[in-house]
Design brief:
The structure is a homodimer of 113-residue chains.
Chain A: E1 3-5, H1 7-13, E2 22-28, E3 34-40, H2 42-51, E4 55-58, E5 63-66, E6 75-82, E7 89-95, E8 110-112
Parallel strand pairs in A: 2-7
Antiparallel strand pairs in A: 2-3, 4-5, 6-7
Chain lengths: 113, 113
């Protein structure tokens, strides 16, 4: 079951939170591993869909950041999907190098025993 | 690369947002498909780790809800992981039936063309 939306319709269907943000999950297109969760606003989501290079919104720095711009560990967009109620996004990506700033392949390297 | 935490240490390491919530991504342990994103507070996360049955916090209803309690589409916890900065969780689950209330296997059934 899959429904295709134009980029314009996709952008319109997103429901942002009270800060104008939506959580975006990055998943490796190659392995299916979930790499990270970060945030987007309308501008960085539009930029990501248009350019194919993933750009997030930093809540701590209050600015846009293109993944890999300092580390070189870019994320190239394979596919963007929106959930049923429009308030979460998943990005299938081609991840260059490790996704995490710690050097781990995924940010989710801590496991409950 | 993986780091093991006791349930107590895991619970302490979580950084909740200003509403006391953390986003939790549910991923199928069987297929690797990302099923949904929902929210947890400290109590529902502790309950999930202790019981092995996934319980979220509903932001709209302001109450705890155990996935499947009305639909029968339970999520049994396989593994819980926390990200590098402690503000996002991934739950690998054994999903009974479809994850989405629409009947779709995953909530992420809308795709940008």
């Amino acid at each position: 079951m899959s429904e295709s939306l134009s980029p314009e319709a996709f952008l319109k269907a997103v429901k942002y939170d009270d800060k104008g943000l939506v959580p975006a999950i990055a998943q490796s297109g190659a392995t299916g591993e979930v790499l990270m969760l970060a945030w987007m606003n309308a501008a960085t989501l539009a930029q990501t869909l248009a350019s194919g290079r993933v750009t997030y919104w930093s809540r701590s720095r209050q600015s846009a950041w293109t993944k890999g711009e300092t580390s070189g560990h870019h994320q190239h967009l394979i596919e963007a999907r929106l959930d049923c109620d429009g308030d979460a996004i998943i990005l299938k990506v081609d991840q260059l190098g490790p996704a995490c700033h710690t050097g781990a392949p995924s940010c989710f390297y801590r496991k409950a025993d």
